[in-house]
């Protein structure tokens, strides 16, 4: 009989303790991590390789690694395919016009063009773009 009373008291103490913890948890201020507003979502764009055209032939390639800043709560999985497609299209056009040739790339102008492209492709959910790598690969093969 004492064992049954002890078990009942233990169960009641557990319930009251858990309930007390719940009440105390709701009265405490949120931790600093959850109190701050969500920042932009950083998302890496898969590497892009763009041909450089000159006089009807490919004279080289530019490889780029980019990261985009999306609005808080944005889903990169939904936005990145459209962003990547738009970036490739715009970069191929710039490359076909000779705008990616060595000595002709203005990084600030290129970044502004890319920012405009990702803003359009994301429906305005893109806030910024960072060029992490910009690498030139010359085409040294003859006759191509």
What does this 3D model show about the protein?
The protein is an alpha+beta fold and 144 residues long. The protein has 2 domains: 2-35; 41-138, 2-Layer Sandwich (Tetrahydropterin Synthase, Chain A), CATH 3.30.479. Helix content is 46%, strand content 28%. It is built from 4 helices and 3 strands. The chain has helices at 2-27, 32-35, 76-96, 107-121, and strands at 41-54, 57-70, 126-138. A 3-stranded antiparallel sheet has the order 1-2-3. Strand 1 (41-54) and strand 2 form a beta hairpin. Helix 3 packs across helix 4 (107-121). It is elongated. Mean pLDDT is 77; it is low at 6-36.
Topology:
Layout: H1 2-27, H2 32-35, E1 41-54, E2 57-70, H3 76-96, H4 107-121, E3 126-138
Helix pairs in contact: 3-4
Give a short synopsis of this structure.
By secondary structure, the chain is α+β, with helices and mostly antiparallel strands. The protein has helices spanning 2-27, 32-35, 76-96, 107-121; strands at 41-54, 57-70, 126-138.
Structural class by SSE content: alpha+beta
Helix coverage percent of residues? 40-55%
- Quickly count the helices: 4
- Helix-strand topology string: HHEEHHE
Q: Mean of residue pLDDT?
A: 77
CATH domain topology of the largest domain: Tetrahydropterin Synthase, Chain A
Which key phrases capture this entry?
single chain, 144 residues, alpha+beta, Tetrahydropterin Synthase, Chain A, 2 domains, 3-stranded antiparallel beta sheet, 46% helix
